[in-house]
Structures are given as C-alpha cells and as structure tokens.
# Entry
Amino acid sequence: MAILVTGGAGYIGSHVARALRRSGYEVLLYDDLSNGFRRLVRGFELVEGDVADEKKLLPILARVDAVMHFAAHAYVGESVDNPRKYFQNNVLGALSLLHSVLDSRVRRFVFSSTCAVYGIPGKTLIDEETPREPVNPYGASKLFLEYALDAYSRSYGLRSVILRYFNAAGADESGEIGELHNPETHLVPLALLATAAHFPALQVYGSDYPTPDGTCVRDYIHVSDLAEAHVLALQYLERGGDQKPGPSLAINLGTGRGHSVLEVIQAAESATGRPVRRTMGPRRPGDPPTLVADPAKAQRVLGWTAKRNLADIVSSAWTWKEKNQADSGVS
# Structure
C-alpha cells in the first residue's frame, strides 16, 4: 500500500514517513521545501511541489492509496501578523489538495490538525467534545479544513481521520532526524540551546499562573508516539472504520499529563548536565495556564497510548542536537 505524505520534509511529516516505512508501507513524499528540509528525507522519494498544483498532484495521486496531509504553516504569532499567508496555504492550498484527492480514486485521508482549534477552553482536561473556538488565524485555518473534511466525508465518501496534536517534541531515537524549524519557537529545543553560552537565554513568559510553580503547563507528546498514532489512524481506515457517511473522525493526541515550563527546563538540565540560562518575563496574551489532552478516545478507537515520557522527549532531542551540532541553531 502506497501513502502520499504532503509536507513530508517537515518535522512531523518526516517522522511519520519513517513510522510508515517501518510498518511496511511504500511512502512518497511531497513538499515545496518552504518549511521542510531535504536532509530529513534522505532515502525517500521526494517530489517537490505545491499542494495547490493540481497538474502535478493528479499523476502522483494515481500511484497512492491514501494521503496524509502535513503541509501547513504553523507559527501562531506569524499567523496573527500575516493571516493572509496562513489562509492562502492552510485553507486555499489544502482545499485544492482535497479537490485533487476527490478527482482521484483515493478515499482515505489523515489530517494533521492541532489543539489550537479549541482556543482557550474553559477546562484543563480537553476532550474532543470541547467547543472549537480558535483565537488565532493558525487555529482558524486548521478548523476550516476540519469543517471541509466533515462535509466531504458526508457528501463524497472521503473517509478521514483528524488528529489534533498537543505539544509535539523530541526526536527519532536513531538520532537521524529531529526537530528543525527556522525560526525555532518550541520550548524543548530552545531550552536545550540555552544550555550553550553562544545561544540566547530562554525567555520564560509568565511566572504567576495558577499552576504549582507559576509557569504554564502543557501536554508534551513525543514525536515518535505521534507518528505511531498516524499509522494506527491509517489502519483504522483500512479496516473500514468510519465507513458510513457522516462526519470525519477527530481524535486528540496527547499523554493526559501536563508539565510546566520549569519542569521542562529541569529535564533539559538533567539531560545535558548544564544549566538552562533563562530570563523571566510577563505573560503572553492568550496563553492559558494549563492545556492537557484527554487521550481516552485515542485509546478506545485506535488502541493508542503514549509510551514515552518527558525525560524520553528531552533526551532524544538532546541526542539529535549532539549529532547535529552544525545545525543546532537551525539552518
């Protein structure tokens, strides 16, 4: 069975590609390399192209049996400053991809969504029935495609699974691939970089939240656990799950346990044996004190639970950084 992975040269897409290959699938990657990195896809067939390029996509879709879609811009702050960029790619580009899929024989689709669709929920343990009220263009752009998938599942038989990630982090245990963003905005790699004198200190936003240590609490999920969930989502569709016309299946991916910013810093210090240089600043507007997934549906429907903990996340990220010192500043 052949799978098309759009955005396959990105952080999560490249990890999912390896998980698919380990599970016996043929994998074809599609990426315009605007956010992806060629070095993350060594050993895979890569087609360079835009998801809105129907002429390029249609012959590729004729070669595959399912699509996993990761090709999206994903910086919350940037989406506020430049919403046009996000709606152009994450909405219009993704819709064009969906229409190309509908014009092909492919009817299995796994979508990389986000907990940002929930906005600032009124509860800390978030299940899939939590109201979707995004507070930034990034979350809104992802929610738009969720709505499209619901409609297309009902009307056209496009069977789909929507996976809403919480805080993906870590690296493949092999150390061959890991987190690469330019610019880097994620806590774990920034904390690791801040252990080196020639990188900036980590900026911590807020120390007076109503949490045990005053810093924000988030649900950190190892990228390899995340990748394995995508394989299970695909196998769910292969087994005939969600066969009747109706809304697409939406599932949260998280551990069900939160860790504070200071706990992540402590884990980085344990992994590296060095202090994380940091400065404490005021809260960022819109940052909820606590965001943690309720992962019960993933367990019930997919048979998936996260296997790796925070120490595993940070140690794997540190192994990746040590093996790739030349790129540890993200190049």
Notes: The chain has two domains: 2-169+221-253, 187-219+255-327. Confidence is low (pLDDT under 50) at residues 327-331. The first helix runs from residue 11 to 22.
